[in-house]
Amino acid sequence: MPRRAIVAMVTAIALASVSSTAWAGDYAPLNCHKAGSPAEKTICSSYALGQSEAHMATLFSVATSLVAMGQRGDIQDAQRKWLASRNACGKDVGCLNAAYQKRIGALNDVIANIASRGPY
Prior knowledge:
Blueprint: H1 3-17, H2 20-24, H3 38-44, H4 47-66, H5 69-88, H6 93-116
Helix pairs in contact: 1-6, 4-5, 4-6, 5-6
């Protein structure tokens, strides 16, 4: 089975099994009503960046719900570091796009690694 299909299957299973409290827990997607930094305001004013934010937040929730506590802490630490680098982009849309693509790729890798170990 191709890697992309495995990742999609694991993501779908995880989305179906994650409780609504887990979604709001460790990382809540950007609240545009409270956007304060230049990066947050730029993200909120761009449909494409908003979609990237939603995609990244979903992957983060799925990844953190599928791993043990130690690895969850590592993913959360990486998320905090990523947020700092994302915010350093300021109003630079190209920088923000690159930051999201890099983080989405990293989270996809976490999920693919989980999927590769199976038991399905």
